[in-house]
Amino acid sequence: MHIGWIGTGVMGRSMAGHLLDAGHTLFIFNRTREKAAALVERGAVWCDSPADVAATCHVVFTMVGYPADLRDVALGSMGLLSTMQPDGLLIDCTTSSPALAVEIAKAAATKGIASLDAPVSGGDVGARNATLSIMVGGEKAAFDRAMPYFEKLGKTIVLQGPAGSGQHTKMVNQILIASGMVAVCEGLIYARACGLDPERVLQSVSGGAAGSWSLTNYAPRMLKGDLAPGFYVEHFLKDMKIALDAADEMKLCLPGLGLAKQLYTMLAAMGGSRNGTQSLIKVLEAMSGMSGPGNLTDSKSAPRG
Ligand code: NAP
Fold first, then answer.
1. Labelling 45: which of 94, 205, 218, 295 has CA 20 to 30 A away?
2. Are 166 and 132 in contact (CB under 8 A)?
């Protein structure tokens, strides 16, 4: 089966690799060609634009960074919908806005093309191990058609409702993670300040009622001073903004999410945009006059505003 894949970054390269391993012929495009080189070496076919990918493939996945990237890839002049044939299927795994998912689904439907928003959770580890949770919005028939591919990428695959529902579910996920990351940092700082061995503390608390994916996967990285992405701070800020904007429209007050967004904004201002989200520990350390291992990435080239 010919499958298209756009976006071969931290997540996309592992996910696309699983479809190659499953025996599919993969047609790929990425903004920076070098980042697709490893997949091409393994047999994927390079294409020069999303339009070229969609001209060859009936099923195309996207895993790009931001809503603006997705708009360009799906709806732009050299985008997927410019060449995809009727009966095609677009599957977007980017964390993007629910409103854009609805817009793409409507534009696709006018050409007889099905579209799913299918953002994922489980991090770089989940992408590598094909254990992602995949949260899907769209028509049931398209979901059923995509299931054989989803099963190569993840373990928990749930249709949440019509177009946009996958992205709304991902926002719930990000709201849960946001306050949780603050709590992980606070717990580790407290443990260090009162003279406990933080690694031994993790042995006690990770498997109890306070356990969480973030605690298990990110706290050990924090303790080692390993601030590498993983999940970019700038991407998490993008997600929290989407969630806060949607909450604002619904007239919701989400103070935990608001606080986490402020702390991550401070982290970006300190030079951490291109670090992993676990580097939030640097902000909490600074607020308590403490310092730990690991240095933030210089953010001179990181986008602001
Ligand atoms: P990433 O490493 O930045 O990968 C995004 C890729 O998309 C990059 O290779 C980028 O190209 C490519 N891209 C962007 N715009 C493009 C365009 N117009 N045409 C073609 N390619 C384009 O980010 P990631 O960590 O894989 O995350 C991808 C998405 O998944 C984000 O929305 C993120 O929020 C979400 N997510 C991430 C994680 C995680 O733990 N990393 C977990 C769940 C969800 P360049 O190579 O030129 O930059």
1. 94
2. no
Q: Are strands 132-137 and 2-6 parallel, antiparallel or unpaired?
A: unpaired
Q: What share of the chain is helix, strand, coil (3-state, %, to 5)?
A: 55, 15, 30
Q: What is the pLDDT of residues 215-226, one digit of tens each?
A: 999 999 999 999
Q: In this structure, which amino acid lies at residue 266? A: M
- Residue that terminates a domain, selected from 115, 143, 162: 162
Domain with 257, as residue range(s), is 168-298
Q: Would 304 be classed as within a structural domain?
A: no
Query: Is 305 a member of any domain?
Result: no
* Percentage of the chain exceeding pLDDT 70: 97
Phi, psi of 247 (to 5 degrees): -65, -40
Cα of 63 from ligand 1 centre, angstroms:
6
The single residue listed with the structure tokens 């909490």 is 284
> Which member of 170, 238, 261, 282 is catalytic?
170
Domain count, the chain: 2
Do 184 and 248 lie in one domain? The reply is yes
Q: Which atom of ligand 1 is nearest to the CA of 72?
A: 18
Residue ranges in the chain assigned as alpha helix (H)? 10-21, 37-41, 50-56, 67-75, 98-109, 123-129, 140-153, 165-193, 198-205, 213-224, 233-249, 255-267, 281-287
Q: What whole-number distance in Å separates Cα of residue 94 and Cα of residue 179?
A: 22
